[in-house]
Amino acid sequence: MNIIRYPNLENQAVLLERPADQEAASRREKVASIIAAVRMEGDAALRRFSEQFEGFVPKSLAVSVEEIDLAAQLMPLELKTAIQQAYQNIRRFHASQWEKSESIETMPGVLCWRKSVPIGRVGLYIPGGTAPLFSTVLMLGVPAQLAGCQEVILCTPPQKDGTIHPAILYSAKLCGIQKVFKVGGAQAIAAMAYGTETIPNVWKIFGPGNPWVTAAKQWVSIDGVAIDLPAGPSEVCVVADSSANPSFIAADLLSQAEHGSDSQVLFITNSEEIIAGVEKALASQLETLPRAEFARKVLENSHAILVKTLSEAMAWANAYAPEHLILALENPEQWADQVSDAGSVFLGHWTPESAGDYASGTNHTLPTSGYARAYAGVSLDSFLKKITFQQISKAGLEGLAPTVVTMARAEGLDAHARAVEIRLNN
Predict the structure, then answer these.
(1) Do 201 and 133 fall into the same domain?
(2) Positions marked active-site
(3) Which among 125, 255, 269, 327 could disulfide-bond with 207, CB atoms 3.0 to 4.6 Å apart, if both were Cys?
(4) CATH number for position 125
């Protein structure tokens, strides 16, 4: 990592800059052509792109019920037990997010309330390239299940042998998802957005993915298909003091760095000794890390920042607005209230970010690239629409009328005013 000691605030924007995507412009053009082809040719385009990008053309784009049922038999008991525990924790946390609908009388005779209604048709994209993210099936499938979405479809690229990883299918079945399709990349996003002969179109698309998937989600969102949130490469920021364990910090940094070479990690501390310890631990742990090649490239583009106080450290962390923020501090609760911009926060020395990625209960689909300044991660609300209702009695309208009529006429909208007056004059 690049060590920056006592940086000036004038350099903050440069030091906290995410790695530039040099191919973004050309990728957008190629993604646009893929989307156009899927819209025009449907399944034929999906098969062509599968052969082109994945070297495999499935006999059927749809995963059969038999394949889904067989998945449980292909998995070790230990993994099934782990998935079931994660499912229960995620379900318990997201079920607590239901809001009770209450009627509010804003003035006599004027009642207003809000009702949560599930989004009818949603699509989940599950990456399956360098790592089959079956955990993401749970993170998206559980809140969709709790919300009561009528139709949930799942798209994921097949493995080299043309099958879907059994853990993805097993997790999907736990979440009640029966429509699974063997298609990945930008073409999968296009299929879910506009529909093909086999894949139905949906009204909102969820899920992370590589830059091609991200670009495709951005394209279809312009065309009126909702997406969960802007998502880019994974990232973590660790804020630590002298009480932290360097090995723990190194492990947390590497847990994000191994996602891919475009990820980023940031380490901020007020202890010079901790930086030295973390550097040593990183070197040691990299030697036995299977995805060390990815991690090393990430570390080359990442910083360790030494500041004078923890207050400064928190200010830098908020300026970065990370996807994941770990407070490896002696008294993390004391500093938690100072967090203003982060996707998800992990408090103390015994709370690794990977717990949230898999099984603590919170959702791991989070805003990246600084979007945590304005976006929240996926939750139950992401799968719901909030519809407002109101009911006004005659007496209530009489009391409200002067306000409505005065405001409508001041805006030059006489028909609005008359809609009130005609009732009262009837």
Answers:
(1) yes
(2) 323-324
(3) 125
(4) 3.40.50.1980
- Co-location of 222 and 236 in the same domain: no
Domain that holds residue 64: 25-106+117-227
Residues 211, 280 share a domain: no
Side chain identity at residue 281, one-letter code: A
pLDDT tens digits for range 201-243: 999 999 998 889 999 999 999 999 999 997 788 899 999 999 9
**Structural domain count of the chain:** 3
**Residue 217 forms part of a structural domain:** yes
Query: Which residues pair with residue 206 across a beta bridge?
Result: 124
Structure tokens belonging to residue 395? 């007496």
Domain end position, chosen among 227, 251, 266: 227
311, with CB counted inside 10 A (0-12, 13-18, 19+), is exposed
pTM of the model: 0.93
* Short-list 400, 402, 395, 419, CA closest to 106: 400
Q: What is the 3-state secondary structure (H, E, C) of 89-127?
A: HHHHHHHCCCCCCCCEEEECCEEEEEEEEECCEEEEECC
Closest to 181 measured CA to CA, from 364, 34, 50, 32:
50
What pLDDT does 115 receive?
96
Regarding whether 223 and 85 lie in a shared domain, the answer is yes
The residue with tokens 């998802």 is: 177
Amino acid identity for residue 80 in this structure: K
Long-range Cβ pairs for the range 21-30 (8 Å, 24+): 21/211, 21/262, 23/211, 24/211, 24/215, 27/211, 27/212, 27/215, 28/215, 28/219
Mark whether 86 and 186 lie in a shared domain.
yes
Please report where in the chains the tokens 């070790």 appear, as a residue.
Answer: 76
